[in-house]
Amino acid sequence: MSEKALRPGMSPAAARLVEWAIIGLCIAALFMIFQPFSLALFSWGCGLVVLGGLAFNLVPLCRPGTSALSLLKVAGIILLILLVAALLGIGTAKLYTLYLGSLR
After folding, report:
1. Interatomic CA distance for residues 50 and 54, integer angstroms
2. Tens digits of per-residue pLDDT, 65-81?
3. 54: nearest Cα among 81, 89, 18
4. Dihedral of alpha carbons 76, 82, 86, 88, sign
C-alpha cells in the first residue's frame, strides 16, 4: 500500500502552506496596526488581528495527513464561538444602556 493511501489528508506542502498563510495574516495585521499613515489600514488591521488570533488556533491542525474538511470544521467552530461572544457582548451592552436609561 502506498503512503498516499495511508494518509488521505493534506500533503506536507499543503499543511506548510496553510500554516504560513495564517502566520502571514497575523504579521500583515500587525504591520497594519503599527503603521503611522492610514487610519483605514489601522482599522483593517484591528479586525485582522482578531481574525488572525482566532485562525492561529488552527496551526496545531496544520499537519500532514489532517483532512482539509476537519480543518474547515474547526474553523467553523471558531467562527461560531466568535459570533456567540460578539452577540453576548452586544446584548450585554444593550441591556446596560436599558438599565442606565431606567435610572432617569
Report:
1. 6
2. 888 889 899 999 988 98
3. 81
4. positive
